[in-house]
TrEMBL record:
Keywords: Acyltransferase, Membrane, Transferase, Transmembrane, Transmembrane helix. It comes from the Bacteria. Residues 18-27 have a biased composition (Pro residues). Residues 717-1003 form the GH16 domain. The lineage of its organism: Bacteria, Bacillati, Actinomycetota, Actinomycetes, Kitasatosporales. PANTHER family: ACETYLTRANSFERASE (PTHR23028), ACYL_TRANSF_3 DOMAIN-CONTAINING PROTEIN (PTHR23028:SF53). It holds the Pfam family Acyl_transf_3. InterPro entries: Acyl_transf_3_dom, Acyltransferase_3, Beta-glucanase-like, ConA-like_dom_sf, SGNH. GO terms for biological process: lipopolysaccharide biosynthetic process. GO terms for cellular component: membrane. SUPFAM superfamilies: Concanavalin A-like lectins/glucanases. The chain crosses the membrane at residues 70-91, 112-132, 183-200, 212-231, 246-263, 270-289, 295-315, 409-432. This is Acyltransferase family protein.
Length: 1011
């Protein structure tokens, strides 16, 4: 359990902070109606027990040899809290018939929050000095979470996310247990108040109150323990840090306070055995447990019940005031030294972990003697905080006189660190630059060969000192492959389909492995798309592709889900269509046993070779072993300051060596480490040619992967695993022939290629056979670059503009009008488009479209709709929907239900305005149907059987030309309920990333226009 490197327990409160008002004497000591006899006796042994708990945690965090199980101290704290707090509340309920929540929370606030606020404020300020900027922003978020008592849930979200791994420890990680305890208070006190209210109304007797509360406590404790067992099996971080899975430990302490132990005398030897046995069990856990112990789960029963035994041994029996015998463990715990440490335990717990982490942030990794010395040094600020913050506020008559004053102190203690965190965090974010995703289309091209990362770059040693790095450190943290969560999480046993690119193509590249395979998603998708192929991603986080048995840090146990996923992926490849290429990659350090690794790889490669497809292994990339974005954020000379040791980062890759030696037939190997870690010096760079290479301590940024695409393509081609990419007019595999491809490359503000595109101008075709383009739209189409232009990043922009009340926009057509399916074959027309990013009243009247018309309309512009119109993509009024339609037949009615056409109806697409999506239409003469696709998914079909043969042939069996435009106003937006008005906002472009036309089957060459 990696998080045990930091999560210690939580401090513990001394005996109830402010002793409640004296309780009237009970009718009979230990009687059924009065308060429990162990109600008001101060328990010095519990104060000493706190010392045991905090010393165990401190020893664990100091990494003292032999005390690796010190994390059980947190369990001791939880049981003590459950016992003391429940006893306090129930005594009040039995004596007064109710629980004063204001008084309770006022006492808790005075006791806990001021000291915590001092530590949080100190960490927020010290972090600004001792940590690098990116780490500082993380820290300020931690301060916010800790101040608001939700730190445990912040750390749960980080530790259950495999792809968020690799960050440094938080100086506030120990606040997880404080958050758990404070959440317990917020839940437990009101619940008991309600339970007591009903119990007191029914029977105003102490036994009734305790019985009802005990029943509720027992039920909650059992449920919580069952949940703890389940989460320990399936998500150890959630089990360890989550509040619901810890409630049962508070419940055990609560039951100690609720059940009538005070009616039992018990022989003194049994009490002695109970107390010393519990103490010995706690000590055994500290020595015997370690990070490999499944925890909490069943293992947590031992320290929890052991703590209960120590507390139970000293509960006074009938007629007794004190049972601290000369030989009992309570006598030892009640000594002056244990009690002194116990009184300091809360503040010592608060201070020790920030001291350790911030010191290591400044000094580097420290050994256990230095960590022990720093832990001891934390006594000084802990004493100061107790002396000048905690005790004065607890003892202040002014503050304790009214509950609202204590609550005001608590609120102030929350606001102070929150304000500091916001100020420091905001300033740091401003310093580091934007957090918006990198536009990969604006990246410089990568070099296909040679020592430099970039084509036409400077010297290979160029550094980030020449300008800002890309991505910047904030962006790098989130610069993941855009694969829509296809790198499946640890608990998942089967990958979804995860097809990308030309998903209908029978040809595909399969990307297979762990997250070190997943980092190659963008290059592999680009390579597949250039050839008209699909890409299938079968990737699982932290799962070795060789058949090794490993543990999952996220699950905290044997990674059985990895074995199940691997077997499923191999079976799917065996039984599915044969891929054109299988690309495999995996972290190469799951084991150091070369013989075991070789055998494990062979178990995986044998079924892969049987498929018969080319297999290429990409040599594992460097593993820096340090948080690279954080380092770069604080380094003036990033190329040098954040370099890491080559020997540790690039160990020998056993599989790569065996493949190169010819010992693994049927598998080829390629690698890019010569450019990621050039030369033969002792270190590897974190930044090359101003490209920040790593997003964490082990994975490439997506930017780096994109820049490496040309190099990977050349290596795969040179290895004979890929055919060379094809130009328009050449075959791209399995009969596909590209007739047109435009990626809209060119300088910003320039016009699209006149070889491919021509402009429609004005408000109708020449001769105006249909004014306002036949649709009632109000714009005038122009050839101005204000309306149609390239953005310089590989996209076309069509922008509606307005001057006064006059709207203008752009409408372009392909020069060619002979795009047609061959006899019995398929025509595919596709584009990657991002719709105008405007919605609501500002989008009223917007009508972006990508569509085709029959070639006959170029000759006199007559014959619509019989000659056919295929609307590949339309959208109106900024809706988060798109649709496709076919028009044919006659002007009114007919087989195409004109003027509406055979439409798909709205298709939801929440990100179509903010992201590029792939739209396509296929005219399949062999199958006798037209199909519409959104991101590879068929969402609409029209078949030849829906109309007579003549109508079908005239609509689809001929050449067409393509149109891209953004109209303003017209019949369709009006039918959708919006018209152009003063609120309609100009200037929002439709962006087109690429357009492609290709055919397959029959005679695949161009067809003349008349069809």
């Amino acid at each position: 359990m990696p998080f045990l490197l930091a999560p210690g327990p939580r401090r513990k409160r001394s005996a109830p902070a402010s002793t409640p008002p004296p309780v009237p004497p009970a009718p009979r000591s230990g009687g059924e109606s009065g308060p429990s006899p162990h109600r008001s006796t101060f328990r010095p042994d519990i104060e000493g027990l706190r010392a045991v708990a905090v010393l165990a945690v401190l020893a664990f965090h100091a990494e003292i040899p032999g005390l690796a199980g010190g994390f059980v101290g947190v369990d001791v704290f939880f049981v003590i809290s459950g016992y003391l707090i429940t006893g306090l509340l129930v005594r009040e309920a039995v004596s007064t018939g109710r629980i004063r929540l204001g008084d309770f929370f006022s006492r808790r606030a005075r006791r806990l929050l001021p000291s915590a606020a001092v530590v949080l404020a100190a960490v927020a300020v010290a972090g600004a000095w001792l940590t690098v900027p990116l780490r500082r922003t993380d820290l300020e978020y931690d301060v916010l979470a800790a101040a608001l008592s939700v730190a445990n849930w912040r750390f749960v979200s980080q530790r259950t996310d495999y792809l968020a791994a690799g960050h440094d420890q938080s100086p506030l990680l120990h606040f997880w247990s404080l958050a758990v305890e404070e959440q317990f208070y917020l839940f437990w006190a009101p619940l008991l108040a309600v339970v007591v209210l009903f119990a007191a109304r029914a029977v105003r007797r102490g036994r009734a109150v305790r019985s009802v509360v005990a029943l509720v406590t027992g039920a909650l404790a059992l449920s919580s323990f069952a949940l703890s067992l389940h989460w320990t099996e399936h998500s150890v971080s959630l089990a360890y840090l989550g509040t619901p899975s810890r409630v049962w430990q508070f419940g055990v302490g609560a039951l100690l306070a609720l059940l009538p132990w005070h009616l039992l005398r018990g022989p003194r030897p049994l009490r002695l055995l109970c107390g010393w046995g519990g103490a010995a069990a706690i000590g055994w856990c500290v020595v015997a447990y370690d990070a490999s112990t499944p925890y909490p789960g069943y293992a947590a029963l031992v320290p929890t019940l052991a703590t209960a035994a120590v507390i139970l041994a000293a509960i006074p029996g009938r007629g007794e005031r004190n049972v601290q015998g000369a030989h009992g463990v309570g006598r030892l715990l009640a000594g002056r030294a244990p009690r002194a440490v116990g009184r300091l335990s809360y503040n010592l717990y608060l201070w020790h972990w920030p001291v350790l982490v911030l010191a290591e942030a400044r000094l580097g990794t420290l050994g256990w003697p230095a960590r022990t010395a720093l832990t001891l040094a934390a006594v000084l600020p802990a004493l100061a905080t107790m002396r000048w913050v905690e005790q004065p506020l607890r003892r202040s008559r002014t503050v304790s006189e009214l509950p609202r004053r204590g609550l005001a102190v608590g609120v102030s203690a929350i606001v102070l660190p929150v304000a500091l965190a916001l100020v420091v965090g905001t300033a740091t974010l401003h310093l580091m630059g934007p957090a918006t995703p990198v536009d990969v289309k604006g990246l410089p091209p990568g070099a296909a060969s040679g020592p430099s990362l970039l084509a036409a770059s400077g010297a290979s040693g160029a550094s980030a000192g020449d300008g800002p790095v890309v991505p910047n450190p904030v962006q790098a943290r989130k610069d993941f492959p855009p694969d829509r969560n296809c790198q499946v999480a640890p608990e998942v046993t089967r990958s979804p389909e995860c097809l990308f690119g030309a998903v209908d193509s029978p040809d595909r590249i399969v990307l297979l492995g762990d997250s070190h395979a997943g980092q190659w998603f963008s290059p592999m998708l680009a390579i597949a798309s250039q050839r008209g192929w699909a890409l299938q991603e079968l990737v699982k986080q932290g799962c070795p592709l060789p058949q090794l048995a490993v543990d999952s840090p996220q699950l905290g146990r044997a990674y059985r889900e990895c074995d199940a996923w691997r077997a499923d992926a191999l079976e799917r490849l065996r039984t599915g269509p044969k891929p054109r290429l299988i690309v495999i990659a995996s972290l190469n350090r799951y084991t150091t046993n070369a013989e075991l690794l070789s055998a494990a790889w062979e178990k995986t490669l044998k079924p892969l070779r049987a498929i018969g497809a080319p297999i290429v292994y990409i040599e594992d990339t460097p593993v820096p072993g340090m948080d690279i974005p954080a380092c770069v954020s604080g380094a003036a000379d990033t190329a040098a300051a954040c370099a890491f040791k080559r020997a540790e980062a690039v160990p020998a890759d056993p599989l790569a060596r065996r493949i190169a030696a010819g010992a693994v037939p049927g598998v080829r190997v390629i690698g890019v480490n010569s450019v990621l870690c050039p030369g033969d010096g002792p270190t590897c760079p974190a930044v090359r040619d101003r490209i920040l290479l790593y997003r964490d301590d082990a994975h490439l940024t997506n930017v780096a992967a994109v820049v490496l695409t040309p190099r990977l393509e050349r290596l795969l081609t040179d290895a004979g695993a890929l055919p060379a990419a094809t130009a328009p007019g050449a075959s791209v595999g399995d009969g596909w022939t590209v007739l047109l491809r435009d990626d809209f490359e060119g300088p910003a503000g320039s016009r699209p290629s006149p070889a491919n595109w021509q402009y429609d101008l004005g408000t109708c075709y020449p001769g105006c056979p249909a004014p306002q383009w036949g649709t009632g739209e109000i714009e005038t189409m122009t050839d101005s670059t204000d309306n149609v232009r390239l953005d310089g990043k590989g996209a076309l922009e069509i922008v509606p503009t307005r001057k006064g009340d006059a709207w203008s926009s752009g409408r372009i057509e392909t020069v060619r009008s002979d795009f047609a399916p061959p006899p019995g074959g398929v025509l595919r027309i596709e584009a990657s488009i991002a719709l105008p990013d405007v919605t609501g009243p500002k989008a009223a009247g917007y009508w972006p479209a990508f569509w085709t018309l029959g070639a006959e309309l170029r000759d006199g512009y007559t014959g619509w709709p019989g000659v056919g119109e295929l609307d590949v993509m339309e959208s109106v009024n900024g809706r988060d929907t798109v649709f496709g339609s076919m028009h044919c037949g006659v002007l009114e009615g007919g087989p195409c239900e004109e003027p509406v056409g055979l439409t798909s109806g709205p298709q939801a697409c929440a990100t179509c305005r903010t992201e590029f999506h792939a739209y396509a239409v296929e005219v399949d003469l062999g199958a006798g149907e037209v199909r519409w696709y959104l991101d590879g998914r068929v969402y609409h079909r029209v078949s030849a059987g829906q109309m007579d043969a003549g109508t079908w042939k005239r609509a689809v069996d001929h050449g067409v030309f393509l149109i891209l435009n953004v109209a303003i106003g017209g019949k369709l937006p009006a039918a959708d309920g919006a018209t152009v008005g003063p609120d309609t906002e100009p200037g929002h472009p439709m962006r087109v990333d690429r357009v492609m036309v290709k055919v397959r089957g029959g005679g695949s060459g161009p067809v003349s226009g008349s069809g």
